[in-house]
Specification:
Strand order of the largest sheet: 4-3-2-1-5
Low-confidence stretches: none
Radius of gyration: 16 Å
Largest sheet: 5 strands, antiparallel
Distance between the termini: 39 Å
CATH topology: SH3 type barrels
Number of strands: 5
Structural class: mainly beta
Order of helices and strands: HEEEEEH
Length: 98
């Protein structure tokens, strides 16, 4: 299982409040899972107390009442999504598309 993302507490905290696209992997599972998440919390490892750093996330695509945990060891890749301006686009016409 290849791991491209290496997170530490400082890097993880810089992701707080970001919307990200993550590729998640689990040992023994040949297929990865992609998801789009809002990072709403960070649990940092504390030596001798808790070793498993993870994010608290909400799905960016479907509403959830409570955050889920995404452990750093399961993240193969992660990309921050940036908002772009919709300059020149008629927003009124977009509201009818669904």
């Amino acid at each position: 299982m290849s791991k491209d993302v290496s997170l530490d507490a400082a890097t993880a905290l810089s992701c707080l409040g970001q919307t990200v696209l993550m590729e998640l992997v689990w040992e023994g599972d040949p297929e990865s899972l992609w998801g789009c998440y809002h990072i709403v919390g960070v649990v940092v490892p504390v030596e001798g107390i808790y070793d498993h750093g993870h994010f608290l996330v909400l799905s960016a695509l479907s509403p959830e009442p409570f955050p889920s945990e995404v452990f750093w060891t399961n993240i193969r890749s992660m990309t921050t999504l940036h908002q772009r301006s919709l300059e020149g686009i008629d927003l009124a016409s977009l509201s009818s598309v669904a």
